[in-house]
Amino acid sequence: MNQMDEQPFRTAFKGTFYGVLRWPQLDTLWETLRNDMAGDWYIYAIGAEPPTATVSADKLGEFIAEIDVLLHKEHEEDYCGIVYADSFEQPSFVKIFDPNNLGVSCGFSDNPPLPGWILSKIPPIDLKAPFLPGNRRRWWQRLFET
Q1: 70-96: buried (b, 16+ CB within 10 Å) or exposed (e) per residue?
Q2: Contacts of residue 102, Cβ cutoff 8 Å, sequence gap at least 6
Q3: How far is Cα 91 from Cα 29, in angstroms, rounded to an integer?
Q4: Structure confidence at residue 41 as a pLDDT band (50, 70, 90)
Q5: What is the DSSP letter of 38?
Q6: Mean of the pLDDT values across residues 74-91?
Q7: CA distance 60 to 133
């Protein structure tokens, strides 16, 4: 893939995002995504190979259900604050940060952490994460077993 092919994803990745601050807001975002499950979504686990094909509506629904459980279980706060969308009404790019690798996900950092997962309508490019942690790799493989 050349740099011209990578530009739409990179531009979207660095664009404006709105934080999902409360758990009920996350529920609303998930519902919006469920209503657009046939919308040609890519699911990218940072550190794994970027997908080259969109997922089925069933797989998107399964991912939303699984990631929701993971976030509630591992982000033991009364607020969310680790999911960001380019739009709440018509999202096309959603960043989901791993609760176990937050660093400084909000605020300023010279080296902000990459999200753990991205939902995108744009074909993803490799964001060059160092690796997918073992527990996340197993979770991801289980979710996407065929």
Answers
A1: bbeeebeeeebbbbbbbeeeebbbbbb
A2: 82, 113
A3: 8
A4: very high
A5: T
A6: 84
A7: 22
